[in-house]
Amino acid sequence: MNPETQRVVVFVILLFLIIVNVFDLLCPQLISDGSVVYAEALWDHVTMDDQELGFKAGDVIEVMDATNKEWWWGRILDSEGWFPASFVRLRVNQDEPMEDYPLKVEGGKEDDSSSGTRRFGMGQTTKDQMRTNVINEIISTERDYIKHLKDICEGYIKQCRKRADMFTEEQLKTIFGNIEDIYRCQKKFVKALEKKFNKDHPHLSEVGSCFLEYQTEFQIYSEYCNNHPNACMELSRLTKVNKYVYFFEACRLLQKMIDISLDGFLLTPVQKICKYPLQLAELLKYTNPQHRDFKDVEAALNAMKNVAQLINERKRRLENIDKIAQWQSSIEDWEGEDVLVRSSELIYSGELTKISHPQAKSQQRMFFLFDHQLVCCKKDLLRRDILYYKSRINMDDMEILDVEDGKDKDFNISVKNAFKLHCRDAEEVHLFCAKKPEQKQRWLKAFENERRQVQLDQETGFSITEVQKKQAMLNASKQHHTGKPKAITRPYYDFLMRQKHPTLPTTLPQQQVFMLAEPKRKPSNFWQNISRLTPFRK
């Protein structure tokens, strides 16, 4: 590229950035004036709350409220909710037809004729050059991310553990989740990437296999994403006390971290795991089918999409435990352990006729099939919306037997639309009859789904902590006693939207801020000499 062409390219890029930045500033004003403002999703957004707006990379979002810098309110078709502003890019040409913008990624491929110009604001270029850019971005962002995780682990967690008078281990687990596990995983991942990086010819690098190798380990992000709202709420509670505000600021200064508050640092892993599918889609787009890395990148893209979907699914499962707890609290005469002790998913429910030995007495009952157990309830004779607990069956010991219409030899009665649950280790047999053949088939399918769900949970390591179970039951109990539905709130988003980096009083000496991070009973030469370090001299 000759010097004249380079100057033109630089000018075009600068002009494009200026236009975008100006539009960002004008966005709230345009919305308040009644103008319709659209934004393009840069990468998938895995929802973290019922009031979040989920979307995939390439989706077009109507921005309805952009008064807050970090979180905007938007709409896609009939769905509305909050979403992080950093996940989207505003359309420069707001009059552009919706059907033409943006180019949809389908299987990681787009129209090569215009994608380079549209995405990078540059003229025509070769696939090799563009692939080099994507590879360099993946490597550089991973290195930055490792530095970010290291700062959190060494700058915050390490210092917090020195202050047993301020933090318990349970609090630290709530605030930081499993970010130390993520740090260890990402260190290994970035080393694997660097081994595959071809410094002389970056476009020949074969990084797809690295994502395939670590796709299972990336599932640890599920626990972190599910815990993140709890982390924000705990931080919100602590930072109401100045001592904690100053302590977190001291940790940041001592680690020489950028000027962002702790909640901002803790949001990064959530954003990171959602960005991988976008980067891989870009990489696949500029990878020729003949490239040795093509098949691995294609497989890696699908794998990382599955990881994001798994995280979203686990988040949905955790939301379900509140609903299950509320359901149990509405059941009269409940006996035995809570349903959440063994289950976390309602698979199917409906009315069946249960036939018992030895009198072959039939009873109409409501049945609720959860993973691991089938709960039997009886309807109130007068108020049919009230249920009484009767019994439960351990599904881990049962096998399903389809029963043909006619006389059953075990119960010596004629049955129709029937099936049995037979205990493998005992002579226990349960006979059920549905009203219609299609209802029976739905139940048989539900039992298959229950076993499949249990197996999937075992393979993926999904589980619910005792703390989460107890909290769900406690919330349901409080709601049941008050008789009032839980108020619709969005404390997680209110917290995020009002959070700003703490501004310390000008009258507070900086050395006093540092002393907050010093253990009271274990003085250290490092802390005593910290004022001598050049960056912190008064």
Oligomer: single chain
Largest sheet: 7 strands, antiparallel
Instruction: Note the total helix count.
Output: 15
**How many domain units?**
3
Helix/strand class = alpha+beta
Strand content: 15-25%
The radius of gyration over CA amounts to 29 Å
Helix content: 40-55%
Q: In one word, what is the shape?
A: globular
What is the name of the CATH class of the largest domain? Mainly Alpha
| CATH-derived topology of the largest domain | Dbl Homology Domain, Chain A
- Are there runs of 5+ residues with pLDDT below 50, and where? 16-20, 96-125, 484-501, 526-538
Report how far apart the termini are: 50 Å
Pfam families: RhoGEF, SH3_1, SOS1_NGEF_PH
Keywords: Cytoplasm, Guanine-nucleotide releasing factor, Membrane, SH3 domain, Transmembrane, Transmembrane helix
GO biological process, one term: intracellular signal transduction
Main location: cytoplasm
Describe the protein's topology.
Blueprint (H helix, E strand, L loop, with lengths): L2 H30 L4 E5 L18 E6 L5 E6 L2 E6 L3 E3 L21 H9 L6 H35 L7 H8 L2 H18 L11 H7 L6 H18 L3 H13 L7 H24 L8 H37 L15 E11 L4 E10 L2 E7 L7 E8 L3 E6 L2 E3 L4 E3 L2 E6 L5 E5 L3 H24 L5 H17 L8 H8 L11 H6 L9 H4 L10
Antiparallel strand pairs: 1-2, 1-5, 2-3, 3-4, 6-7, 6-14, 7-8, 8-9, 10-13, 11-12, 13-14
Helix pairs in contact: 3-5, 3-8, 3-9, 4-7, 6-10, 7-9, 7-10, 7-13, 9-10, 10-12
